[in-house]
Specification:
The complex is a heterodimer of chains A (236) and B (293).
Chain A: E1 4-13, E2 16-26, E3 31-35, H1 42-49, E4 57-62, E5 65-66, H2 72-77, E6 80-83, H3 95-102, H4 109-122, H5 124-128, H6 139-151, E7 157-161, H7 169-184, E8 188-193, H8 196-202, E9 205-210, E10 213-219, H9 220-224, H10 227-232
Parallel strand pairs in A: 3-8, 3-9, 6-7, 7-8
Antiparallel strand pairs in A: 1-2, 1-4, 4-5, 9-10
Helix pairs in contact in A: 3-6
Chain B: H1 2-31, H2 38-55, H3 60-83, H4 91-113, E1 118-119, E2 129-131, E3 136-138, H5 140-162, H6 164-174, H7 176-181, H8 186-211, E4 214-215, H9 221-234, H10 239-260, H11 265-279
Helix pairs in contact in B: 1-5, 1-8, 1-9, 1-10, 2-3, 2-4, 2-8, 2-9, 3-8, 5-6, 5-8, 6-8, 9-10, 9-11, 10-11
The chains are: A alpha/beta (236), B mainly alpha (293).
Chain lengths: 236, 293
C-alpha cells in the first residue's frame, strides 16, 4: 500500500477548476517530484493534501487513513509536514521560536531536543542565528528555516513547495543536498518544483502536471531523457 | 501639585483605556477584525457586578470574578455565533456584524436593566493616599487601576512569550495558514483571544465604573471608541502599542480637559490621533503592513 495516495482529486477556486481529477501515489522512502509550469496546479495539490484548500471530489489517504478535507492542524499531528511556497516563516519570531513552532504538536521534551540537534546539524547557520528575528534572514536562510521548522515535527513525509524559488544557484544546490539527506534518513519526500531539471535529478519518480491534469508520469531518470520533457520543461 | 494630581488622574484613565485597548488590539492582530462590540462587553461586566454586589449583596471580589467569567463566556459565544461563520468573508461584512452585535448588547441591556443611570458603588474600599503632607491625594481606585493595568500588561507579555498558546497566538497573527501547518488549531486560538480580551473588558468595566460611578447601557460605548483610538494610536495589533496608546490618550484627555477646555477634550484627543496617523500611519509602534504574495 502506498504511503500517500491521491485518487481522482478535484479542486475548485470558485467556479474555476484548478485540479481536474488527478491520481498519484507516494511510497515509503521515495522522493517524488511533481513538476509542471506555473499555474499547472502543483501548489494547489499540496495545499489540498495538507488541508489548507478544500477538495471538491476525490480521496486522499495517508498511511491508510482518509485525510480528505481534514483540518490542517490534525494532519500535521499524523506525521505530515508541509514547507509552503514562499517559505512563510514567522518574520517577527526568532529563528529559535520559529523552530519551536514547528514542534508545536510534539509533547516529548527529549524528542524536541533531539530534533533541535538534528536541525542544527543539518543547518548550522540556523544555530548561529537562533536569536535573530526570522525576517532578517536572507532568502536562502529563510528556506532553510522553513525546512528546519517542518522537520521539527519529526514527519514521516515532507511536502515541499518550490524550495528553489528565488534562491541563488549555490543555495539551490545546498537545499537539494539537504533534501537528499533528509530522504536518506528515512523521510519520504513529495517535492513540487518548477526547476524540473533539479527536481528530476534527485527524484525517484515524477508526475508532470499540465493545467490540472497529470500529463506524464514515470521514472525520473526516464523522464529526464524524454524528448517532450526536455523541450517543455528543461529548456533544451 | 495640581499638575501632578492631573497627571495621575490621566494615568488612571489611561490605564483603563489601555486594558480595553489590549482586547481590541489582540482580536485585531489575531482574528484580523475590529470587534466594535468590545466596548459593550465592558458595560455587561459593570452590570454583572452592580447586580450581584448592590442587588444581591455579594462579596465584591466574588462579584468581580463572576463578571470576568460572564464576559469571558460572552466573548467566546459572540465570536462563535456572530463572527466565526464570517471567517473568510470580506472585512466589511464582519465590521457591520460587529456594529450589529454592539447595538444588540446595548439594547439587550436596555431591556433587562432599564434605561435609568445606576449609581455604581465602588468595588474597592481603599482609603485615599495622602502625600506631601496632604497636598496631593490619590484615591484608592486610582492606585488599583494603575497597578492592575501594569500587572495585566506584564502578565499578557509573559503569557505570549512563554506559553505555547501565546506563541500560537503570535503565529496565527503573523500567518494563519502557516500556523495551521504547524499544527495550531486556529479556531481555538481565535476563541482564546476573544476569551482573554473579554475577560479584560470585564476588569476594565469594574475599574471604569468604580472610578466614574455611573452605569447605563451606553457606559461602554464611548470608552470603547476611545480605547479603539488608543489601539490605533499605539499601532493596532501591537500589545505594547495598546498600552502606550491607552496611557497617552488618558493623559492627553485629562490634561486637555484641565488646561484647555473641558468641552473640547474629545476634540483634542481625536485631533492628536489624526496628527499621529498623518505622520506615522501605522501608529506609534505599528509595523508597516507587508503585502503577502
Amino acid at each position: 500500500m502506498a504511503m500517500l495516495e491521491v485518487k481522482d482529486l478535484q479542486v475548485f477556486y470558485g467556479m474555476i477548476q484548478a485540479i481536474k481529477g488527478i491520481s498519484f501515489e507516494v511510497n515509503q522512502g521515495e522522493i517524488i517530484a511533481l513538476i509542471g509550469s506555473n499555474g499547472a496546479g502543483k501548489t494547489t495539490t499540496l495545499q489540498t493534501i495538507t488541508g489548507i484548500l478544500e477538495a471538491k471530489a476525490g480521496k486522499i489517504t495517508f498511511e491508510g487513513n482518509d485525510i480528505t478535507n481534514m483540518p490542517g492542524h490534525k494532519i500535521v499531528k499524523m506525521g505530515m509536514a508541509h514547507v509552503p511556497e514562499g517559505r512563510r516563516v514567522f518574520a517577527n519570531l526568532t529563528v529559535y521560536e520559529n523552530l519551536k513552532m514547528g514542534a508545536f504538536t510534539r509533547k516529548d521534551k527529549g524528542e524536541i531536543a533531539r530534533n533541535f540537534e538534528r536541525v542544527y546539524k543539518s543547518f548550522p547557520r540556523l544555530e548561529e542565528r537562533k536569536n535573530q528575528p526570522a525576517g532578517t534572514l536572507s532568502g536562502g536562510e529563510q528556506q532553510m528555516l522553513a525546512m528546519g521548522r517542518a522537520l521539527m515535527s519529526n514527519p514521516r513525509i515532507l511536502l515541499m513547495d518550490e524550495p528553489s524559488m528565488g534562491l541563488s544557484p549555490i543555495f539551490v544546490d545546498e537545499i537539494f543536498k539537504i533534501i537528499e539527506e533528509v530522504s536518506s534518513e528515512g523521510t519520504t519526500v513529495l517535492l513540487v518544483e518548477q526547476n524540473a531539471k533539479k527536481a528530476l535529478s534527485i527524484a525517484d519518480r515524477a508526475y508532470v502536471l499540465e493545467t490540472g491534469n497529470i500529463a506524464l508520469s514515470g521514472d525520473a531518470k526516464e523522464l529526464i531523457s524524454n524528448e517532450q520533457i526536455r523541450k517543455a520543461y528543461l529548456g533544451e | 501639585m495640581s499638575f501632578l494630581s492631573n497627571l495621575i488622574n490621566g494615568l488612571s484613565l489611561g490605564s483603563i483605556y489601555a486594558i480595553i485597548a489590549l482586547g481590541y488590539t489582540m482580536v485585531y492582530g489575531i482574528a484580523k477584525m475590529l470587534n466594535f462590540a468590545h466596548g459593550d462587553v465592558i458595560m455587561v461586566g459593570g452590570y454583572v457586578v452592580f447586580n450581584l454586589m448592590t442587588g444581591q449583596g455579594m462579596n465584591p471580589l466574588l462579584s468581580v470574578i463572576a463578571a470576568i467569567i460572564v464576559c469571558t463566556v460572552l466573548g467566546v459565544v459572540i465570536e462563535k455565533i456572530a463572527y466565526k461563520p464570517l471567517r473568510g468573508a470580506n472585512s466589511l461584512a464582519v465590521l457591520i456584524t460587529a456594529i450589529g452585535v454592539s447595538y444588540f448588547l446595548q439594547n439587550a441591556a436596555l431591556l433587562l436593566f432599564g434605561s435609568d443611570v445606576k449609581a455604581f458603588v465602588s468595588v474597592f474600599n481603599v482609603k485615599p493616599f495622602r502625600l506631601a503632607g496632604g497636598a496631593l491625594t490619590i484615591t484608592g481606585v486610582t492606585v488599583i487601576t494603575v497597578i492592575s493595568c501594569i500587572v495585566i500588561m506584564i502578565g499578557l507579555m509573559l503569557f505570549i512569550k512563554k506559553t505555547k498558546s501565546g506563541q500560537a497566538m503570535l503565529a496565527v497573527s503573523e500567518d494563519r495558514a502557516a500556523a495551521e501547518l504547524m499544527g495550531v488549531n486556529v479556531n481555538q486560538t481565535i476563541s482564546l483571544t476573544f476569551a482573554i480580551g473579554s475577560g479584560l473588558a470585564a476588569i476594565a468595566g469594574v475599574l471604569l465604573c468604580s472610578a466614574y460611578p455611573t452605569l447605563s447601557p451606553y457606559t461602554g460605548a464611548m470608552p470603547g471608541i476611545k480605547a479603539f483610538t488608543a489601539a490605533v494610536f499605539g499601532g493596532i495589533g501591537s500589545i505594547p502599542g495598546a498600552f502606550i496608546g491607552g496611557i497617552l490618550l488618558g493623559v492627553i484627555e485629562i490634561m486637555g480637559k484641565t488646561y484647555i477646555s473641558s468641552q473640547l477634550a474629545d476634540v483634542i484627543v481625536f485631533g492628536v490621533l489624526i496628527v499621529v496617523l498623518l505622520v506615522k500611519p501605522t501608529g506609534i509602534l505599528g509595523q508597516p503592513i507587508r503585502e503577502k504574495v
